[in-house]
């Protein structure tokens, strides 16, 4: 179980965390965002490879079913990591894809429903997660 306590003098720069009886550690907050962005990049890469699309296609306003499915899977994987919706939205915007918070939630819900009812989708997500862990 992890608990996070903010130190009063450094609350906007550092978070204090402790894991049960382990010694507390200080983690710079900007490194957490950077770490999540690396995960986002790895997931983007494996999703594009699997769906045989470019990052440019993934991050432009394109409503073709294969691109939309790939994008929704990216949202779902990031959210399951867990990654804050706001971070996902920000990373997408940095790639040129400005999208509403509610649209990301909608995409996550669509894939969640598919994963719960279609074992092929569940298997696909697990494979993509494993592929993302492999060095590139």
Protein architecture, described:
- With 136 residues, this protein is mainly alpha-helical.
- The chain has a single domain, classed as DnaA protein, C-terminal DNA-binding domain (Chromosomal Replication Initiator Protein Dnaa, Chain: A, Orthogonal Bundle), CATH 1.10.1750.
- Helices cover 62% and strands 10% of the residues.
- Strands 1-2-3 form a 3-stranded antiparallel β-sheet.
- β1 (2-5) and β2 form a beta hairpin.
Q: What is the CATH level 1 assignment?
A: Mainly Alpha
Largest sheet: 3 strands, antiparallel
Number of domains: 1
CATH fold-level label: Chromosomal Replication Initiator Protein Dnaa, Chain: A
At the fourth level of CATH, the homologous superfamily is DnaA protein, C-terminal DNA-binding domain
Helix content: 55-70%
The coarse silhouette is: globular
């Amino acid at each position: 179980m992890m608990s996070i306590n903010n130190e009063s003098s450094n609350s906007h720069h550092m978070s204090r965390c402790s894991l049960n009886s382990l010694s507390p550690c200080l983690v710079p907050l900007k490194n957490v965002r950077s770490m999540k962005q690396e995960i986002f990049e790895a997931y983007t890469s494996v999703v594009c490879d699997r769906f045989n699309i470019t990052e440019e296609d993934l991050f432009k306003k394109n409503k073709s079913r294969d691109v939309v499915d790939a994008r929704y899977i990216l949202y779902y994987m990031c959210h399951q990591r867990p990654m804050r919706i706001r971070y996902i939205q920000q990373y997408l915007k940095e790639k040129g894809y400005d999208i509403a918070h509610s649209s990301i939630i909608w995409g996550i819900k669509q894939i969640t429903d598919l994963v719960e009812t279609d074992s092929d989708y569940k298997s696909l997500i697990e494979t993509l997660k494993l592929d993302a862990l492999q060095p590139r």
